[in-house]
Amino acid sequence: MNLPPTGRTTEDLLAEVARLKAHDLPVRGGQVTAYVYDTGRAEVNDAATAAYLEMLEVNCLDPTAFPSVVEMERQVVGAVADQLGGGHGIFTSGGTESIMLAVKAARDASSRTRPNLVLPVTAHPAFHKAAHYLGIEVVAVPVDLETYRVRARDVAAAVGEDTILVVASAPSYPQGVIDPIEEIAAVASAAGVPFHVDACVGGWLLPWLRAAGAEIPPFDLSVPGVTSISCDLHKFGYAPKGASVVLFADPAMRRKAYFASAGWPGYTIINATVQSSRSAGPLGGAWATLQALGREGYVELGRATLEATAKLREGIGAIPGLRVLGTPESSLVAFAGTGIDVFVLADEARARGWFLQPQLSYAGIPANLHITVTGVTLTGVDAMLKVIAESAESARARGPVVLPDGLVELVAELDLESLDDAAFAELAASVGVDLRPGAGQPEMAVVNAVLDALPAASREAVLVRFLSVIYGS
Asked: Any idea which residues bear N6-(pyridoxal phosphate)lysine here (predicted)?
């Protein structure tokens, strides 16, 4: 894009934004079952948007310059701590940053020279990202392939003298099940190792499900041995994107998450987060959302979510060839197929206006589709089940994706670094995945089938090139 010779009007710009968004997935209504969280309450969204805009230009870099940031963060973090067993927190931009800070704090509190993290294979990749950035080894532990939960005894066997942090999930994203937090906390405590509970999804959901009548096991800082926990407010807090909290049981550990630098002649540098300058818009949006919904609003949303999840699990189980994986305690549901290619099913559902999130097979867990049930899902759960049933029937009729002979082996052995983005795009187009500008939205079944057949390292290399081609120069 070249800059226009003169400035454009707001009307013109908003028309252009509308054009650019024409092929985006809808963020309201519940037909997109990942990435977005919808209360179905327009007034809550309006309140969050107004507060977000009011705080948009406030800079969180220096809380002494903008005391509103301090007061809002105290209120937001305090509300989260009140629900999750206390602690001392930091407001962050999302789950990945919350996790990054938890891992940094554990690393900086340790004297290990070759530090490692012990975590289930179902733990979020944000831990791998943190480990990559911070120079830490990951020790991945398999999960039980019936329950999809990690076993405490396997965690205990994996913990060694260089372990600086043990991780478990409440719930894990892939199958929506809660790891045995109390048992793992006992293991970590006995080993003298900090224990982080990743409740990015569940931290602001599970308390309200419990209040609505669900049986939720203890999972937060009230459990002896849990030393930190992450909780996203832009998930089931329904706040605008860019809102999460990480809590530490010990304020000294929170200080290990901070960064300060006095090694230059400029302004004072002290950061609570990975970012330095950052808009207070997300903080304002989160604060307003919590205030607009209140305890009663979240309990009502939890009740609707429980009912929708129960209907969805029962309905999917009644569709021939589909089965729900595990017994999720939360409102995340994953289902696999027998005689049905779930990647084809996802394309069929997309053609009908619904997005179901594909998940690749890994560590003995089959390829599946993932659904995040939110506050708005109940009003459309019957329509969703109808689409899943129709899409499953169409996928069965179409049959599974058939990849050209030798394609997987070719991709696995290919030196992707020797190809420029144009050559990679040509290769993708040759198998029916045209990523070039103007080609439109490709069906993803072929892409997912190729990725599913590759080992993890090759998947990662292909995904990097995929992203590079999409964004271009």
From this structure: 235
